[in-house]
Amino acid sequence: MKISIALILAAVIGCVCAEIITTAPPGESQTLAVSQAYNADDVVFRTSIMATLSPTSTQASATAAATSSSSSPSRSLSNLCQVSNLPLTRPQLCLTCANCFHYAALSNHSNQHHNICFAIDTLSASVFCSVCCDYIYSPRLDKVIKLLKLRREEKSTKRKAANGHSRSAFKPLPQNDVSTIAPGRYGNPISLRPRGFRNLGKTCFLNVILQAFIATPLLRSYFLSEKHNHLLCTRDKCTACEFDKLFTQVHQPDTAPLGPTSLLHNLWTAPGASDLAGYAQQDAHEAYISLLNLIHSSCTSSTSHSYDCSCIIHTTFQGTLQSELKCRVCGYASVTSDPFLDVSLDVGSSRDTNGGGGSGSTTNGPKNGKNGTTNSGKNSANHTPPSISPQNLDNCLRRYTYPEPSDWKCTSCSAQASTKQLSFRKLPTVLAFQIKRYEHGLWAQKLDAPVRFPLTLNMRPYTSDDSSEPDEMYLYDLFCVINHLGEMETGHYLCASRFGEQWFRCEDADVSPTSIQSVLDSQGYMLLYIKRTLVYYSSA
Length: 540
Hints:
Largest sheet: 13 strands, mixed
Structural class: alpha+beta
Number of helices: 14
CATH topology of the domain at 5-146: Herpes Virus-1
Radius of gyration: 26 Å
Pfam families: UCH
Distance between the termini: 41 Å
Region (Disordered): 346-392
Domain USP: 195-532
Helix content: 25-40%
GO molecular function: cysteine-type deubiquitinase activity
CATH architecture of the domain at 5-146: 2-Layer Sandwich
Main location: nucleus
């Protein structure tokens, strides 16, 4: 008797989550490697896992739904959830009883019928755990799915060989191919490439930021899992609702470019973003910060920013900068910390003589002061800035975190000979850098000096953390690059974003595959990196 593949998947998922639940003491952190995070969100992954589900599981789901439908004639089998009566726009398939439910009904269903419930989102193939109350990612599950795909392909090849057909070598899709994949009779063709955005009149600055948000896995999972539903939200002029509709549109089978008119109008009329209204050329970095703040305000009742904010913006983009002021006479140190959403780094010019080149875009949050420290601090003995030519991102970060002279007056000995040093106290999940290419002196000019940046970035040398954790905990992978072409007052924005293992060049409505080398050879105005390893803190 053949064992249902769906049951095998359920068993594997159960083992993975059971390990996390049983081995994590209260308050102890667990790490989940998410090196396959892009694959988990990739369309190929979504369609392949649905194809591996056993037909018996699909039939059982349909039978259970039909039984429920017959007992309640007013319910529509394909439209309404059996428990909550909500529309089944994204059915969640329970792996225990093979019934389909709305996302909001999964917890109630688990509490009433199962001790632990696992469900699969039929559109994204993400696995929901009722204990975690969230979608989970597991490298072990990814390996099992790849193994099942390989076995299925081998069986298909054996059948073809028996019919006299030989197996052909794998050939990747050509770059000029309209990359779509058909998941079969249970769904519509889904585009493998991101959709373009029409230029509505000098709106290229907005288009590149939208592409960056769409390429961010955590934002994509948040909105596609209906954590914010525009049909249920009662807020007026809600920016999060506009993004909920946008993420739904970009994942439709249609590949035609979108015109984000509704979101643009929301940006123009939203409080705090009036500078971006109109048809003048705008800065993409300003739009990035404004949209982050607007989404934060839409997802929480508080308009202030704090360290403990649990909204999707702060849990994804917020980190903490540490500033240490140290007296060179008595060694007294004053340490403060501030939250930031991105980091601005200086390119450097011929006039640069000091280190510490850069600033962080901080939020208005409380400062954590720790005064009276007398420890030496790293690099504090020699405050002379190094002779660093910031030709790459590591050099820019070295300048940013190097001690620089300060006019701070020591509160211990009253001496006015001190140094100031910045470091990263807490690293965010998504780390965004702005390369400061606009210089304002006697005259304004744009700095076109190339800054090389890596695909993988190790942030450990720039942190104030002296823990013994391995370097893997500090590794970041590049997933989006925004470039500006032209002069300071006039120009054009375009970007390159990563989906799965493929990079795409996005220039308004034009989206085409590109090579990694082309991405790395670009100048770079904004760079977005995602942490390779996420940290899970048990809520028990």
